[in-house]
Design brief:
By secondary structure, this protein is of the alpha+beta class. Helices cover 35% and strands 12% of the residues. Strands 1-2 form a two-stranded antiparallel sheet.
Length: 103
C-alpha cells in the first residue's frame, strides 16, 4: 500500500534526526507523511503548514473518510497534530473575503 510506504520512508528519515519538508503531491500523501513525523517527534508537537484552497477538514466526502478533503481532519482526530486552523479565502466572483481561525 502506497500510504504505508510513504509513512515508512518518512519515519526512517525523521528517525535519523532529519526533519523532512514535503512540498506538493497529492492529498493522499499528507496524512502518512505528517503522521510519520509526529510518530517520531511526538504527537501534538508537530505543526503542519498546509497551503490549499480548502482546509481539508470535512468529515467525509461522498461517503469516503479518506478523500482529498479530509487529510487534515484525520491528522487532528488521530492526535498527531493540534487543532489549530487558520484560513483565508476570497471569491473572485463575489469579491467576498473571509478569515477564520481555531485553536
Amino acid at each position: 500500500m502506497a500510504e504505508h510506504a510513504i509513512w515508512q520512508r518518512v519515519t526512517e528519515v525523521a528517525s535519523r534526526g532529519i526533519f523532512p519538508v514535503i512540498l506538493g503531491g497529492e492529498h493522499s500523501i499528507t496524512y502518512s507523511a505528517a503522521k510519520a513525523v509526529a510518530d517520531v517527534v511526538g504527537h501534538v508537537k508537530l505543526g503542519v503548514i498546509h497551503f490549499d484552497a480548502h482546509a481539508d477538514t470535512v468529515p467525509e466526502m461522498f461517503g469516503n473518510m479518506w478523500s482529498h478533503g479530509t487529510p487534515m481532519r484525520r491528522l487532528i482526530e488521530s492526535g498527531a497534530v493540534p487543532a489549530r486552523i487558520s484560513s483565508r479565502s476570497a471569491c473572485a466572483a463575489t469579491g467576498r473575503r473571509e478569515t477564520s481561525s481555531t485553536g
